[in-house]
Design goal:
Organism: Linnemannia exigua
Bound molecules: adenosine-5'-triphosphate
Protein name: Homocysteine S-methyltransferase 1
Number of helices: 8
Distance between the termini: 34 Å
Strand order of the largest sheet: 1-9-10-5-11-12
Radius of gyration: 19 Å
Family: Belongs to the ABC transporter superfamily. ABCB family. Heavy Metal importer (TC 3.A.1.210) subfamily.
Oligomer: single chain
Strand content: 15-25%
Subcellular location: Membrane
Largest sheet: 6 strands, mixed
């Protein structure tokens, strides 16, 4: 289902540590390591994805039951639309993503994907087979990536760009139905076709950079390999997402302070992958979501405001205040060099 995309972290309500700038990837990978507490119902059928519509109906949830972290949250992301979650730290944005991945079930309410209550279906094993060793991966080489099956890949080096193992996404044609089949993602036989990989890297605006590495797409990254910058990691993650072609895209924007050009490049690649695709994005840099179809301000577990960028600016509430605050921070030389607000 979902791609978790991990990478896009662009913003921070304020600047969190630079360490976090890869978050997203890492945060997502961490997420996948959380114990899954929910159990499928016996006889549960697979979730069948079609258009990728997401509905939250009066969803409440608390990590500790007596202390709700989400209170009766309702929203709908129609097929192909983009919804952004913003709001103060601890408000509940990541919790919404976790529920959608079904790391937990709501205490009240329902979550529907393409009309199916996800609680009644088999859980898509998004991350479990995800071999999560990003640091060991080869940046991108078809050759060493015959990681078979869905599990037990520890120690195998696989390519950063080419492996479909990151987040339960399924490869497929444009209108492929994605069947939640328990998390086995077949390795594509054409996988070694670098054409596709390169096309994805180009769309993510990382191809030129990769080409300049001595070993190009075979570059190994991580501990003993190449260290990618925050912006490069994000773009690599975007390229992986493009390869996976998920029907629903989950993005968690990084909080790093990137230079303006890098931010623009990433912004462009996000736009290209989220176009006409159902997208749920946690955003920190408000400039990246001015085009969202809908923005929810999540605060203390509730939707405090909702609307388009223009509507929320006119309303003059929390979102408008966050926007002004970010403009001020961007103008402060000591802050970051963001200057890509669109209006
Ligand atoms: P941020 O922008 O800082 O990532 P967020 O809006 O994504 O914040 P969540 O991570 O969803 O916020 O957290 C919502 C609340 O739930 C917070 O008060 C947090 O401390 C709490 N929380 C998150 N994970 C757990 C957990 N595993 N157990 C108990 N409480 C948790």
């Amino acid at each position: 289902i979902i791609q978790l995309y991990g990478p896009l972290n662009l913003f921070g309500t304020s600047y969190r540590s630079l360490q976090k700038n890869f978050i997203d990837m890492e945060k997502m990978l961490d997420l996948f390591q959380e114990p899954v507490e929910i159990q499928d119902l016996p006889e549960a059928k697979p979730l069948v994805m079609s258009g990728g519509e997401v509905v939250f109906e009066n969803v409440s949830f608390g990590y500790i039951p007596q202390n709700p972290n989400l209170k009766s949250v309702s929203f709908k992301i129609p097929h192909g639309k983009k919804l952004a979650l913003v709001g103060p730290s601890g408000g509940g944005k990541s919790t919404i993503l976790r529920l959608l991945f079904r790391f937990y079930d709501p205490t009240q309410g329902r979550i529907l994907i393409d009309g199916q209550d996800i609680r009644m279906r088999r859980r898509i094993q998004s991350g479990e087979s995800s071999g999560v060793e990003s640091s060991r991966r080869v940046l991108l080489s078809g050759k060493s990536t015959k990681a078979s099956g869905g599990r037990g890949r520890k120690g195998k080096s696989s390519s950063l760009l080419s492996s479909p193992e990151v987040a339960g996404i399924t490869e497929g044609g444009e209108d492929a139905d994605v069947e939640g089949d328990g998390g086995e993602y077949e390795e594509d036989e054409d996988w070694e076709d670098d054409g596709r990989i390169q096309a994805a890297a180009e769309a993510a605006q990382i191809h030129e950079i990769i080409s300049r590495f001595p070993e190009a797409y075979a570059t190994r990254v991580g501990e003993r390999g190449m260290r990618l910058s925050g912006g490069e990691k994000q773009r690599v993650a975007i390229a992986r997402t493009i390869l996976k072609n998920p029907p629903i895209l989950l993005l968690d924007e990084a909080t790093s302070a990137l230079d303006t050009q890098t931010e623009r490049d990433i912004q462009n690649s996000i736009e290209s992958i989220s176009k006409d695709r159902t997208t749920l994005m946690i955003a920190h840099r408000l400039s990246t979501i001015v085009d969202a179809d809908e923005i929810l301000v999540i605060q203390k577990g509730e939707i405090a405001e909702q609307g388009s960028h223009e509507e929320l600016m006119q309303a003059g509430g929390i979102y408008a205040a966050m926007w002004m605050q970010q403009l001020r921070e961007d103008r402060t030389p000591a802050g970051s060099s963001h200057s890509s607000q669109k209006d």
